[in-house]
Design goal:
The complex is a heterodimer.
Chain A: H1 22-33, H2 44-61, E1 82-88, H3 98-114, E2 119-123, E3 128-129, E4 146-147, E5 158-165, H4 170-177, H5 181-184, E6 188-193
Antiparallel strand pairs in A: 1-5, 1-6, 2-5, 3-4
Helix pairs in contact in A: 2-3
Chain B: H1 3-16, H2 19-40, H3 45-61, H4 72-91, H5 111-116, H6 119-128, H7 131-142, H8 147-154, H9 158-178
Helix pairs in contact in B: 1-2, 2-3, 2-4, 3-4, 7-9, 8-9
The chains are: A alpha+beta, B mainly alpha.
Chain lengths: 197, 183
């Protein structure tokens, strides 16, 4: 490091100027979009939405039996070939009351069922335990591995739920995922094939 | 704020993508970055905001290679300067400044002028300078960069930075006196 300027007087003008308040969130959004930072702990709003999403997914799963081939009941999705993993972070902003958000998901799943495809959804609860090799058969009991929401952040935000789709067609799975209101609300969906067993 | 304080936060962002660590770094350094950008853009808040935004995104992307050979704030301000120069080039504006000017010795600071000048007039006078003059004057006299650091940032010799500053100060005095600031 070189020496400071050749005199010790005060600067002509204050070198620091407060930036506009909205700049911080703008920068953070850009950093999240580039995966350079992860999301903050869920806000009260996003927690509320998570609860709503849970109700939605439960509602979506309930009553699938009528549309499920063979009548296996609401818990079954025979021939489920793809899973839609739903993530959300602070960018998840439905911009409407929770009941209306719920209605959007219900209508979406109902439309898929009307098209003859079985679909089942579940929401994940708060908290997570992230285990690794050090935890394998560990006798450790002094600290709980359970952490509050936000502890198990991924590059896509929090995993908040999933849908199972009864299709083995990748294009069809993608096509359906693209219509999910979760995307419109600012969430992310990871589409994964289920390995046949 | 010392670099020692920033170090763990930089690592937390680079390795853990920790948003809280980033928020602390943002709060500490953005006022200086925005002050620099606002002066470089001659008071254009919209451009200054864009420049600071782009500077942060680029800087965070390179946190992992920050070696601490310069002060962290200086390193960040470097991204502001680089981005501003890109914007300036794209706009094809500004007045060319002779980078090979004679290496005039730095004149002593005119304390009387500084004492008399109203801050608003001074801010306006700084804005009125040609881009090349304003760049060096803002970096040296307002942000506190050394001529060596300015030389590295702008790709010029330290001596050239000194001569640019000398000319910038003369231009600043002239502007202020023409507007009654030196009476």
């Amino acid at each position: 490091m070189t020496t400071r300027p050749d005199d010790t007087r005060s600067p002509l003008l204050d070198p620091e100027i407060d930036p506009p308040p909205h700049l911080k969130s703008r920068v953070e959004r850009s950093l999240r979009a580039r995966r350079l930072i992860v999301s903050s702990a869920p806000s009260r709003w996003s927690k509320l939405i998570a609860v709503a999403a849970g109700l939605v997914l439960f509602a979506a799963g309930f009553g699938l039996g009528a549309a499920t081939a063979g009548g296996e009941g609401p818990e079954s999705v025979p021939d489920a070939g793809f899973m839609l993993l739903l993530f959300q972070d602070d960018g998840y902003q439905p911009g409407m009351p929770a009941p209306e958000v719920l209605g959007e998901y219900v209508e979406w799943t109902a439309a898929i069922r009307r098209g003859g495809m079985a679909i089942r959804g579940e929401a994940l609860g708060d908290g997570a335990a992230v285990l690794g090799v050090d935890d394998f058969e560990s006798p450790r009991t002094s600290t709980s591995p359970w952490q509050t929401a936000g502890a198990a952040e991924t590059a896509y935000g929090q995993l908040v739920g999933f849908f199972l789709l009864a299709t083995n067609d990748r294009a069809e799975a993608l096509s359906i995922a693209r219509t999910c209101p979760h995307l419109r609300f600012g969430g992310r969906i990871v589409v994964r094939p289920i390995r046949p067993t | 704020m010392s670099d020692t304080d920033d170090g763990p936060l930089i690592q937390a962002v680079a390795r853990g993508r920790d948003p809280r660590a980033f928020a602390l770094l943002y709060e500490r350094h953005t006022p200086a970055m925005f002050g620099l950008a606002l002066r470089l853009t001659a008071g254009d808040e919209s451009d200054a905001e864009d420049i600071v935004h782009d500077a942060w995104v680029r800087a965070v992307d390179r946190f992992g290679v920050f070696e601490g050979r310069s002060a962290f704030r200086s390193w960040l301000c470097g991204f502001v300067v680089y981005r501003w120069r890109e914007v300036r080039r794209s706009e094809v504006r500004g007045t060319a400044v002779d980078a090979q000017a004679d290496l005039d010795p730095l004149p002593s600071t005119d304390a009387r002028l500084e004492a008399a000048a109203d801050r608003v007039d001074l801010e306006r006078a700084v804005r009125s300078l040609a881009d090349g003059y304003r760049e060096v004057l803002v970096l040296h006299d307002i942000q506190g960069f050394t001529h060596e650091e300015i030389g590295t940032l702008l790709g010029i010799e330290a001596g050239t930075s000194k001569s640019q500053l000398s000319r910038a100060r003369r231009a600043l005095r002239k502007t202020l006196s023409e507007h009654g600031g030196d009476s």
